Amino acid sequence: MPRSAATIRRVETALAAASRFALVTLVALGAFAALLTAAGKDPLKAYVDTVLYVFGNAYGFSELLVRMIPLLLTAVAVALPSRMGLINVGGEGQLYMGAWLATAGALGFSDQPAVVLLPVLTVLGFVGGGLWALIAGLLRALRLVNETISTLLLNYVAPMIVGFFIFGPWRSPESASYPQSPAFVDAARLPGFLHTRVNAGLVYALVCLVLYRLLMTRTRWGLEMQAIGGNPEAARQLGIPLFRYILAVMFAAGGVAGIAGMVEVTAIQGRLVSELSPGYGFIGFLVSWLARGGAGGIVVMSFLFAVISSIGDILQITQGLPFAVVDILMAVVLFIVLGRRPAGRAR
Amino acid sequence: MSAALIAGVVASSIASGTSLLYATLGEIVGERAGIVNLGLEGILLVGAATGFAVTAQTGDPEVGLAAAALAGAAVNLIFAYLVVGRRANQLATGLCLMFFGSGLSALIGRPFVGTLITGLPRLHLPGLGAGAAARLASYDILVYLAAPTAVLIWWLLFRTRWGLVVRAVGENPAVAYAAGRRPASAQYQALALAGLLGGIAGAHLSLALTLTWAEGMTAGRGFIAIALVIFARWNPLWAMAGALLFGGAEALQLQLQAAGADVSPFLMNMIPYLLTFLVLILWGWNRQSAAPAALGRTWFGVE
Amino acid sequence: MARIPVLLAAWAALGLFAAGPAAAQDKPALTVGAIYVGSVNDYGYNRAMKDGLEEMKKAIPGLTLIAAENVPETAESERIMEGMIQQGARLIFATSFGHQQFAFNLAKTHPDVVFEHAGGWMQAANFGNFFGATQTAWYPMGVAAGKMTRSNTLGFVVGVPIGYAIGNVNAFEMGARSVNPQATTRVVVTGGWADKAKEAAAANALIDQGADVVTMHVDSPATIIQVVEQRQAYSIGFQSIEARQLAPNGWLTGLGFTWGPFMTATARSVIAGTFKPAMVRLGLGQGMMAVAPFGKAVPADVRELVTAAADRVAKGFNPFTGPVTDNTGAIRIKDGESWGGADMGKFDWYVDGVIGKAK
After folding, report:
1. Which of A16, A204, C134, C321 gives a 20 to 30 Å CA spacing to C119?
2. Neighboring chains of C (3 or more beta-carbon pairs < 8 A)
3. Running DSSP on this structure, what letter comes out for residue C284?
4. Which structural domains are found in chain C, ordered by start?
């Protein structure tokens, strides 16, 4: 097949997907507008304000990117194991543990220069989240506990560990002992670009996405992972080491989510606090699922969810609605997508 | 360990475990039919907000409770339509439902935040005097009905034809279909019942325990219930023990504080989860899967 | 293939269409933005803030107030405040402790906007700090509790055991001890400022352990007071004096913040261009705090005692004057020393008579 024909085919498929999603979004926006009107609010003003804020405004746009960063990472954390048929709903917990280990490093090595400290913290973030996911991976590889339930349960234990530390050993002595860790030194802060909060985390996210795509499409490992995902028994009989793959993939996935945690504490918060994530792990799951695990789709879906979040901000400021209401919009978008695929597909 | 402390812990565990029990029972019914609902948290929130809003409007907590149950069932039927009618992925739909319930409850509850309501009335059993012991005999109706409800659900699932069909569908929908049953219908009914129980669970929090509504007030109880289902091996009677255990952990650390003991709330709160893990590992070791087989296909992925 | 240009054109049109109406705006005397950490219907912290802001709004004609509730103490708050600035706000009240860093970040990038933060310590040319001096104000509350208790056990629910909260408990116990040497205070920590289910369980636990007067330092006293009322014990409120509506029988008294005068003065100074940043800590008698009306259960002689104690505090009485021992017997404030307002955040020990661990 001539290369140009294949390319055209790919562009067509992408466009078809894009327009499908545009349609879905429009329908969802319409349904949400009906809901807002029923609640006595002005949906058109809300949407217009959002567009202005997000696209007509440097701050709004930069905040959009800031919102996307953790979503990109947690989505990869779900997508990677999903290629093998593993279900990782533990993004929240892995994020917290990555933040936790990174904080240990930031507090422990605070006298190091940024050039040394930041890479160390990145590695620690990766390892923290990775080890946390590895627990679930190990239990799964040993055929003891299914990873869906174990990653879900671990989501609850991780914030408790963080809470224990910020109320106890890492309690900040200076700030009137409000429960949080001491502020990180400047060397431990991930820098932003051009006075915005868009930070190097964006670079991490893009690197992870690229690596993920390359892994799946260009390496033998990716092929073997997909073989396992398609038919584990056959894969085992072909000699593919399932056990090692489960461990490695869960570790890597948790690690990516852990980096999201590290970015959160080093770039945005500047310390370890008890509220790190408004559900990034779960939204990442939904992003990955909507994108069917594809790297490009993850970018698009993260963007979509970030825009939806911005609508929430506007609703709160200009219309006096609780931010949580925007979850309805997000859910409606997903309901429509979920409802459009009848007749049991395993995905 | 004074008598007051023990009585206080037991009383607190029962109070706080009640909503967990209702939620767990609902999830058991749904999972027995082969559907896992990760969005249980959303159902609880909708139940809490609706119950509170309707009670605030009508002044009648029983009406509020009924509204909460119906609201929970209605929202769960949306979920049912998607996963049963449209064969959507259960995990994704469930998470989606969680967000939906979170937003919807915030919208419903917002005009009523801070309203003072009369909660569900307490019934006092006579004869236990004052103090902590008296608390053991002074609960709202939902607490007294909790254990009987668990028995009722057990009976429903294991001693009635309806329950048999539901369980058959959960084990193997194709065989159930071949035997002349309609799996989809059974699943819808199971999920409606699950929604009713979930709505009641949420209402207990707002109408009895705290007499308030605040966004997100269920604080993860829905997910705890999902863990409890596994802990209870999908059996309503064991769910009672599990609900007491999880309710107890939170109660214990607060009572210990009041009694002057030094205990880290975080470590104490971890215990129920660690116990669940332990139980899961032990059962996995024994290779006994008590889970309904068809639940496995969606929930367990590659197995 | 033609869909892309169509979509782009649609977005562009939408943008142009919206730009029109957005440009025309009225100019008020001052636009003030405020963010609340919770709901203003909480009979507590947020309600008191709202009451103060409403007072300010009434006092200054032409003042526009933009407010957002349930703003979490995370990076999200920065976005909300920035949004308000873009809507024209030139004075921002960040009303909860956890908003401090984020408000401070914005103060750096918006030197023409004034920020007032409640409860922190940071300062800049356009960033000031304010709070009530609560600790000494708790002393007369303790007097009320000490006189009204029959079991000699008082209960205190604390959200987060920060130094200021511990100081509140200490002053409370000292006030109680001053009229009732047998009075002890039991403390239960819920771990958060607004966990309603835990608050209910904590109040129950305290009453189970014998407390017949319960008070609190959490964002909203509503849940605790309602639980205490249900169990027919006495309650003392905090944050907003409106909380007395919740307990018709058991209400003794309470402390509330009266932010109105300070907020009005600040807004005026911003309009006049004379704003000066400061760390403002005012207590009873200085306009920021007030004692709530007494409940019907409180007899006249107790009311006199409490009012007298409140007057003493307003005139400068400081209960944290040595010697003061902690609940392990060690002397923490030596004879002749006293801990002033600047030391209130340092408490990590409870006074003698308090049952609980501060660390």
Report:
1. C321
2. A, B
3. B
4. 28-132 (3.40.50.2300), 134-256+289-355 (3.40.50.2300)
